[in-house]
Each structure stands twice: as structure tokens, then as C-alpha cells.
Write a structure and sequence with these properties.
The protein has 228 residues and is an alpha+beta fold. The chain is 58% helix and 18% strand. It has a five-stranded antiparallel beta sheet. A hairpin with a 3-residue loop joins strand 4 and strand 5. The protein is elongated. The termini are far apart. The model has no long low-confidence stretch (mean pLDDT 76).
């Protein structure tokens, strides 16, 4: 069969779709959409469990589930008719997404949802389940082996060159790394990256505030982006 015959047949099938919609096809559609919905829901649960930000992003949560179902529907449509597939390629080629994704992990979940939708739409259910399990194990293992705690940026303003020695003493065994030091005539600004295993950040800040020469201390949670 030539390419011309395939396209002609696809047009005829598209025109007669309403008449050829069988019970078996309806069951296939329901099974595909239900599989995509369930797997998208479980991807959302993984996202909620391992979310690293300060405020949980509900919009991203809805997007993960929705994009899985939509991708499955698109894949199911283009896999049954070449005309729809060509039209879909043309339509999607002009779409531009301008929403900036700040966290690289959000991209991981989006691609995971899209891939799951494609696999479900292609009716490769065992592959969809196996890929979900593997991705879940990867995220679980990487989260267990990563740093247990939170990263903060401490901004300290002080006067006097010897004050920095007192600040280091006040930090004690607190793990930190110098990010920057700014000098403004007689005043200084110190930026430290702190690794804290619990939420008790006030212990060392109170000690630093009590040092003569320190004007203020600002602690900001840092996780790739600044959070107030």
C-alpha cells in the first residue's frame, strides 16, 4: 500500500469515525485514560512527598496529573489515524510555552508525566508501571543519600575587622561556607552558606547578634532560589 493510499484510507476512517466507534474501542479509551489518571495521581503523590520548596505548589500538582491524561489522549488519537497525527504535529509546532521552570526537579516531573502519558496512550501498560517504579526508586534513593537538612544564606552586617573572628567563634561547629564579603569603608557585609540539619536557626543568630560590632543578621532559606 502506497503512502497516498494510507492517507486516503485515514481520511475515510476519520469521516466514518462516529459510525465505526465500537464497544471495544470505547473500552480501550477508558482503560488508557484510567491508567494515565492513576499513574498521574501517583506521580503527584511522589511530587508532594519529595517537594523541597517552602510553599507547596498546587498548580504544579494539578499540571502533573492533567498533562499525563492529556498526553495519553493525544497519543491515543495520533496512533489510530495518520491524518490526526500530521495535524497534531503542525498544531503543536506553533505552541510556545513561556512559563519559566525554576526548579530542575519540576522539569523531571513534567517529563515523567509526559512520558507516562505517551506510554499509556500507546497501550504499553507494563512499561508504564515499570518506568514509574524505577523513577520512584531513583527519587527515593537520591533523596535518602542527599544532605539531610536545609541550606540557608546568612547575611551579616558588622563593623571592625576583628569582628569576623568573633563571628566564627559564635558559629562554633556549625558547618558553613563563605560566599562573599563586601567592604563599605568601615562597615562589612558577610554572606555565609549554612548547612543546618534541624529548624533551630536561632541558636547561632542570637549569639552573633550579641557580638559587639554586629548590626544585624538576616537568615534566608536557600534551595536554588531565594525564599523570603
Amino acid at each position: 500500500m502506497s503512502a497516498k493510499d494510507i492517507i486516503k484510507k485515514s481520511f475515510l476512517e476519520l469521516e466514518n469515525f462516529a459510525n465505526t466507534f465500537t464497544v471495544d474501542y470505547a473500552i480501550t479509551v477508558v482503560l488508557v485514560m484510567l491508567t494515565a489518571l492513576i499513574l498521574g495521581f501517583f506521580i503527584n503523590l511522589v511530587y508532594k512527598k519529595f517537594y523541597r520548596g517552602v510553599v507547596y505548589n498546587r498548580a504544579m500538582s494539578i499540571t502533573v496529573v492533567g498533562i499525563t491524561v492529556i498526553t495519553a489522549a493525544v497519543t491515543l488519537a495520533i496512533s489510530t489515524n495518520i491524518v490526526i497525527s500530521l495535524g497534531m504535529v503542525g498544531a503543536l509546532s506553533i505552541v510556545r510555552f513561556r512559563t519559566a521552570v525554576k526548579d530542575p526537579l519540576d522539569l523531571l516531573y513534567l517529563f515523567w508525566a509526559i512520558t507516562t502519558g505517551i506510554i499509556s496512550g500507546a497501550k504499553m501498560y507494563p512499561l508504564a508501571i515499570i518506568s514509574f517504579i524505577i523513577m520512584f526508586l531513583i527519587i527515593l534513593i537520591m533523596s535518602k543519600t542527599s544532605f539531610k537538612g536545609k541550606v540557608y544564606i546568612a547575611i551579616i552586617h558588622y563593623t571592625g575587622e576583628l569582628t569576623i573572628d568573633k563571628i566564627k567563634i559564635a558559629l562554633g561547629r556549625q558547618k558553613y561556607r563563605l560566599k562573599s564579603k563586601t567592604t563599605r569603608k568601615d562597615s562589612y557585609e558577610l554572606a555565609l552558606e549554612l548547612y543546618i540539619k534541624d529548624n533551630n536557626t536561632l541558636g547561632f543568630t542570637e549569639k552573633i547578634n550579641e557580638i559587639s560590632g554586629v548590626s544585624d543578621v538576616t537568615v534566608i532559606q536557600y534551595d536554588g532560589e531565594y525564599y523570603g
